[in-house]
């Protein structure tokens, strides 16, 4: 994945100390570097003698042009003293990227009563002018450079900006229409494009069948790597060598289609025509691709694919997602629920050293190609992008893995804070039975990302919106 680029535009105002502003410009940059985030920072060095944004119109144009040429994904305007609100607003408006606003807390006035920076006062001014320019922005509480709330807010903003940049460039490879009986998987393709810029690239099951059969005949490096991986990582005692090869061929064909079409996610009609065409389930192929950061959703769930990209991006693409049904309640735990699908969870999440590649347990022909077994528990985020009647929401909640009875397929039992509340919210919608999970707390960054996606409303159930905001302020 291409690194996120952050435009760094520290700002000062001429009436306050230039020396102190320069000092804080350096300190803030050093602090950002110490966070260890894998991002590229584009600064203002060379545009003027200070590498700072201050109040002249040419300065604003030069800064915006540098950030555009470098194709930054977000911009940070730390106020090293009062700052220059009009120049900040012009640059931010010109870029149209997520904006971070913050400034280091002032020290006590000098002995003679003079103040060097008045940073907080300037933040009030810039916030107002950004509103006048209709520029959405993220704000971190006025705090010291070494305060935990700055690090927390900065990292959360970077994750949110990563969600926004991948959401805005999202193209989904759609393999086949939804299964005819799955009305829940309806989506409005035109509205997704018009409102969010999300593109679908549809191909037929005939297309993917031909591509998979072509790969099956090949002895390519990609085929050999896929076959070797399956043999090394899974117990294949219940299937044949031909089954392994067909699954590998489907995986390679799907990845090639995604790469060639510039698609970052896939939604596939996983049953039942595909089984008639090539004699396997695509579940394990889906699992392998999801582990490679190309998430694949079942039953042609386009909204699920959108969710997958958002959740994966919120974790800075450092952890795999898993795509699950919310299936049945725990037999003993009133707040427990089964997250399950036929066999598509990433192999890397398995609790077994060698999970099984098996034949599907529901179909009459017992088509092979599922990855079965329990995945690890621990703390996780569950999310769902969905909508109807022209309104879109992002469901957000946290869960943790618990013990539960054995079942077939890929699965994990989880506990939430108040399952009846979750259930009511999910049934009343606009949601369905599909969700995306990840072993990371990405709720605050997904919540913040919605600020930059017009038409998408965050819908957190646990933590609540007030709790998320308090956490971002450093109040908890």
UniProtKB/TrEMBL annotation:
Classification via InterPro entries: Fucose_isomerase_N/cen_sf
GO biological process, one term: monosaccharide metabolic process
Protein name: Fucose isomerase
GO molecular-function terms, A-Z: intramolecular oxidoreductase activity, interconverting aldoses and ketoses
Keywords from the UniProt entry: Carbohydrate metabolism, Isomerase
One Gene Ontology CC term in the entry: cytoplasm
Organism: Cohnella herbarum
